[in-house]
């Protein structure tokens, strides 16, 4: 029994924390920020444009070495790769856009003129990719307009050299693929949250602590029994993990508390989708449910001490009781992987009580490579091979190029870094650079694509019966590992200023444009980040080429 003054003070502190949460939400300090849709779209579209140029005339240099055999490469293997690249675009052009699954754009009358037209044919978008005469907008069905991307252009070296060229004849399939890639950030039903009174006021953190202690205590008691049994009848590998799993099942605290519902206040939207879009590649991550965990605030970031924003968010979530709404969140079902056939272990699945037991501050979310695999299986296995499903692994590769996504943090400069890349995008992709520099960039992407294409072929050879399959989880994880290695190297070389910045996310809340400009105007900013995009587009190229073989089979 506490004294009345202490109780009053505690009550006031809880109210203050709840108010702090709502202030944070109002300011935009949501837990995860989506990679900019424009960058997601253009990474895929630019890669598609590269695939096209082997079959279509563009402004290449007279002595172009774009398609020359790389030094040390097997010429036959290189020619097989180029043949696969050249054949892929026709398959996508001949495939339905899949846009018919969405609601139609508001009107066929455009607010702006596009290619000389303001009034478009009815259902102009409900065709095969190669039959679509206009670029597809990122906000295709939500813009209140005609669904056309007025800002899109092939750009730079891909622009038609003939000024009289009929732009209706441009291949807009890349904008379809790019749209579905970016659209993953609009899957708002992946994440629904609510306030659970049983987790509020710090109870979520306390319950997690007590539950962990119980698991550890039971695990210690079970350890000699489980290990003795395994060593006697099987082998000793993994006996400690098995003891922990049994302890978790024996401990009923999370199974009883987690069933209680939350308040009927739905917290969702595009700012919360990204809890499934991370993969923690840092050493020492808990990785309790998958080989690599996704967003888990307790492990967030590239080092210690943690970013202040992550700490404040965790405190606010614990104070308010903000927790997963299990039944409403489709991500729970979609990204816990069972019956895997790609060589990865299945997810250690959690039930409703386990997902809702504590706040999101202490809830590990599934990693983005699981999102990739979920989409890939739909694309591969459904007879219609929907391009909307292919967008998920393409999106995962894009996220795996972002330093904060592979360190699984919502802070450390996450949002201003990504906003800066959008503002730098034309410079990163060298849209206005001399043609020789643009061609050099394409050569780099092509060479990296060759590496990733061989990566896929090696995996297929090691997995008989998967000759048309693509290891999207292996690709996502390996790309994320490379991103983290590069980012940590640059972090040291720049005296801990790029790409991770422990204070940038906090500064962003009060001074948005100034903080974005810190990244945008960082010395050699475009050159620093370009290798990440080159690697990501190389992986994208290999995925598009490999995925097209599924379409060929039909």
Brief descriptors of the model:
554 residues, mainly alpha, two-stranded antiparallel ribbon, 19 helices, 4 strands, globular
Task: Provide structural commentary.
The chain has 554 residues and is an all-alpha fold. It has 3 domains: 1-28; 37-188 and 377-552, no CATH class; 197-260, no CATH class. It has 19 helices and 4 strands. The chain has a two-stranded antiparallel ribbon. Strands 3-4 form a two-stranded antiparallel sheet. It starts with a helix and ends with a helix.
Note the topology:
Layout: H1 4-27, H2 37-52, H3 75-93, E1 109-114, E2 117-119, H4 173-182, E3 193-195, H5 203-233, H6 239-250, H7 253-257, H8 308-320, E4 322-324, H9 330-335, H10 352-356, H11 368-381, H12 387-399, H13 403-406, H14 414-428, H15 435-462, H16 472-493, H17 504-510, H18 512-520, H19 525-552
Helix pairs in contact: 1-8, 2-4, 2-12, 2-19, 3-19, 4-12, 5-6, 11-12, 11-16, 12-16, 12-19, 14-18, 14-19, 15-19, 16-19, 17-18
Q: Would you kindly provide a brief summary of this structure?
A:
The chain has 554 residues and is mainly alpha-helical. It has helices spanning 4-27, 37-52, 75-93, 173-182, 203-233, 239-250, 253-257, 308-320, 330-335, 352-356, 368-381, 387-399, 403-406, 414-428, 435-462, 472-493, 504-510, 512-520, 525-552, and strands at 109-114, 117-119, 193-195, 322-324.
